[in-house]
Amino acid sequence: MTGPLRVKTIVLIAFSLFFVPSAAPADGGKKLSGVAVKAMAGFVGLSVAPISAEMSPELIPADTEEGRARLARSVNRYSLLKAHFQPQKTLSTCSIASSCTALRAVDPDLRGLTESEFLRTAPSLEKVRSILFSKRGVSLDEMSEWLAKKFPVVAYARHAAGIDANEFTEDVLQALETEDTLVEVNFYGRDMGLGTGGHFSVVGGYDPVTGSVLILDVAKHKFPDYWVPVKNLMNGMSSTDPTTGLSRGYVKVYGGRAACGALFGGR
After folding, report:
1. Coil, helix or strand at residue 188
2. Which portions of the chain are predicted below pLDDT 50?
């Protein structure tokens, strides 16, 4: 048996051993135990040291003098998000880490939520396999539906193809100025000046002077937090997700009283 095949076989055996068919979720079907998810994530986890990844000069790291100046004059939720930040644990769980960060920030009852616990709420075993083994990740609409069905929040997805930069900026500002409301963005990094492909991260601030958004990037093994011009981010969100044929975009997450307002008073 060849090396790669042997490793794959070991992974599949471990997967079958840790799978617990008796632990069924309320909506039927099988569910992974926490041990199973941790084992799966461990096999495909990140084991690389932090590296210097490609970033356009238009993207300004938050820990620079200019980055700090933008933060000081911005509308932001930076401290809240940093306190509850969840970096991605595997190469394909940026959407999970972003959603964990958002949920921990908007709902006090979810402050300890981890990637493994989030994955245990997956709509199907096949979805977990797809995320951890096929590296296919989660689409914008899939994540919005997942959040709304499995957690006590309201989540709306908006595709970039249907909005302009002003609408996006207004949505971001409304979220940043409203308690228990946050925005997760889904973009193709290379279309906005970042050395990555399809990706999710969380919006932490908006600087009106430069028209830039602060991204708390969950890929901490590659990127710092950074400011990106809205026009660049719109380019990244306007790219087509090949798994859906639709543009990427963002998810607006409402918790607590904000969720009630979103349900009965509009988005």
Report:
1. strand
2. 1-52, 261, 263-264
Phi, psi of 247 (to 5 degrees): -70, 160
DSSP assignment of 210-246, as one string? TTEEEEE-S-TTT---EEEEHHHHHHHHTSEETTTTE
Least Cα distance to 237 among 205, 195, 190 occurs for 190
Cα 195 to Cα 129, 170, 202: the distances in Å are: 26, 27, 17
Q: How far apart are CA 267 and CA 265, in angstroms?
A: 7
pLDDT, tens only, 71-123: 999 999 999 999 999 999 988 899 999 999 999 999 999 999 999 999 999 98
**What confidence tens digit (pLDDT) does each residue in 31-53 have?**
444 444 444 444 334 433 343 46
Give the type of residue at 94. Answer: C
Domain boundaries 49-265, CATH class? alpha beta
CA dist., res. 255 & res. 104, Å (int): 10
CA distances from 159 to 39, 67, 74 (A): 34, 28, 25
What pTM value is reported for the model? 0.79
From residue 189, alpha-carbon distances to 106, 193, 224 in Å are 26, 6, 14
The helix/strand/coil state of 187 is strand
Contact assessment for residue 99 and residue 184, using Cβ atoms and an 8 Å cutoff: yes
The DSSP-derived string for 112-140 is: T--HHHHHTT-S-HHHHHHHHTS-----H
Torsion angle in degrees (nearest 10) through CA of 132, 134, 140, 143:
-30
Take residue 138 and report the two structure tokens written for it.
């989660």
